[in-house]
Amino acid sequence: MRERFWERYPLHELTAEEWEALCDGCGQCCLLKLEDADTGQVAVLNVACELLDIPSCRCGDYANRFARVPGCTRLTLERVEQFRWLPHSCAYRRLYEGRKLAAWHPLNAGDDRRLRRKGIDVSSFAVSQREVPEEHLEDHIIAVLPIDD
Ligand code: SF4
Ligand code: SF4
Predict the structure, then answer these.
(1) Which InterPro entries is this protein grouped with (predicted)?
(2) With a threshold of 0.70, does the pTM exceed it?
């Protein structure tokens, strides 16, 4: 990967490896969401996808994630509309919006200790989808995302 690529190149010029390396591993995009069909509002739950390994905030089967979880979406620059539901802290969203990576981002900090100390990752509060019956999902709403447009 090129030195400090996240500061020197726009998103569309990143290599596949650099694109992957941008992910800070927070796991926030793996939290389940409920969309209100009438208002378009998106509620975020503290319930993580069944494949997320919560302590590490890593996907339990990254290579096969799309086959295993139909709702899992590939994050690409072309699918900009999806940036709406990503957290403001997300590296892809930050760079897309012209912001810089945070000082706590592993690429800046060298590892994920600062990210974890600041509670950016979901390991301290997420519960697995495997433990929450579907009829109880609404009890797990932790935020409702503002509608930007
Ligand atoms: S929210 Fe963004 S930075 Fe965090 S895990 Fe998902 S893609 Fe990576
Ligand atoms: S399949 Fe993996 S990457 Fe996709 S939402 Fe679930 S844990 Fe996250």
Answers:
(1) Puta_zinc/iron-chelating_dom, UCP006173
(2) yes
